[in-house]
Amino acid sequence: MCVLPGVEPVPFAAALGSHGDRPAVLTADGRLSYRELADRVAELAAHLGTARRLVLLAGANRVDELVAYLAALTAGHPLLLAPGDNDAATAALERAYDPDVVLRRVHGALTVDERRPASRHELHPELALLLSTSGSTGSPKLVRLSRANLQANAEAIAAYLRVRHTDRAATTLPMHYCYGLSVVNSHLLRGAALVLTNRSVADRDFWELFRAARGTALAGVPYTFELLDRVGFAEMHLPHLRYVTQAGGRLDPDRVTRYAALGRRRGFDLFVMYGQTEATARMAYLPPHLAATRPEAIGVPIPGGSFRLRPLPDRPEPDTGELVYTGPNVMLGYARTPADLALGRAVEELRTGDVARRAPDGLYEIVGRVGGLAKVFGLRVDLARVEEQLAARGVAACCVGTDRELVVAATGGPDVQRVRRLAAAAAGLPARAVRVHPVAELPRLGNGKPDRAALR
């Protein structure tokens, strides 16, 4: 194993070989043992060398990309994990941060583009991973995560899910997304196997692989559960399934109740979870036995974490305020320019931007958002930034977000389809999640500020 002098590897990545011949990765093309995975990781780590450099990886749910991710964590090279399925977003991050090494697919093969032998950047010794914030994929604003962040969150998730070395978790979410990455980290930590695929749960091939691999774990965002309903998940025979996890936005309480009941009948647990990229991934989970009776709750803090409620002048209700999280998985801080990669810890606690209520039973519930951030399909959207980008393209608009869509009011007789495409790109959302309303004038409050409530 090649580890840079004075830089500690992320423990779960460095310990891959300790799991021996257990299966580490199961794909449609075969399997890779932990010993084989560790050998491939060590080989690439050695290739990356002993000079610490900023590495950009265009992530994907493939073996080569998984090896590259683990090689960077093992060898101590800070990794900027970009969306491999979005060339424009990856190119924007490349321009903004000028990485020393770029790993991406060219003509179907992962290539290593070494641009300089040593880094042109000052890299803080604790910096391990850079991820785009939810809803800002391709934005130069990144979350700076440390080795300790990654290890702590993986340990906490593995603990409350009770992950076993015999588990086999499907990669139903992209690895550049913090939730998808947390599935990878927490299962590798315990010596469990990954059913590695980029197939959707809507694809027949996904279920053929999942059954053949004797899959035990599925992860999904709210839209995943819509797809599960469409493909008849309730009628599927999945005898090895042990747990289903949900995060990435609020799941309708009726659907939580329904899936919890299905789990009781079929022998799997449903874990409703809550998190943000700034907390590495997870902050809270709802114990499965409460899903049927408290489906609207996000639950309790993960092991090692805690919440407090910051009072808000416009929310005088008892036990209500902005949800603030403290724990070893709280990020080092943000990066907006390459100079920020030299910074150490700038954040001790995480102000989530969510308004929460602590119920008498001790469970937390999300009851709103603070300020101008919206959460659409679990992705945080800066409404002001979307409006600014539309204005730069000649569209005067006012935006508001709900759990299910971004609503855009636009003046000037706009081309609705064009505005939908522009707003979707600015927000990092699919076009189907944007609804455009042509209006004569934008709704405004008496003080001249946008009246977002009028758009709901």
Number of helices: 11
Task: Indicate the CATH class of the largest domain.
Answer: Alpha Beta
User: Major sheet, described briefly?
Assistant: 7 strands, mixed
Q: How many structural domains are formed by the residues?
A: 2
Count of individual beta strands? 25
State the secondary-structure class: alpha/beta
Kindly report the spatial arrangement of strands forming the biggest sheet: 6-5-3-4-7-8-18
Q: Which parts are unreliable, with pLDDT below 50 for 5 consecutive residues or more?
A: none
Q: Hey, roughly how much beta strand do the residues contain?
A: 25-35%
Architecture of the largest domain in CATH? 3-Layer(aba) Sandwich
Radius of gyration: 22 Å
Helices and strands in order:
Blueprint: H1 11-14, E1 23-27, E2 30-33, H2 34-48, E3 55-59, H3 63-75, E4 79-83, H4 87-97, E5 101-106, E6 109-114, E7 127-132, E8 142-146, H5 147-161, E9 168-170, H6 178-189, E10 193-195, H7 204-212, E11 217-220, H8 222-230, E12 243-246, H9 253-266, E13 269-275, E14 282-286, E15 300-301, E16 306-310, E17 320-326, E18 333-335, E19 350-358, E20 364-369, E21 373-376, E22 379-382, H10 383-392, E23 397-401, E24 406-410, H11 416-427, E25 434-438
Parallel strand pairs: 1-10, 3-4, 3-5, 4-7, 9-10, 11-12, 12-13, 24-25
Antiparallel strand pairs: 1-2, 5-6, 7-8, 8-18, 13-14, 14-15, 16-17, 17-19, 19-20, 21-22, 23-24
Helix pairs in contact: 2-3, 5-6, 10-11
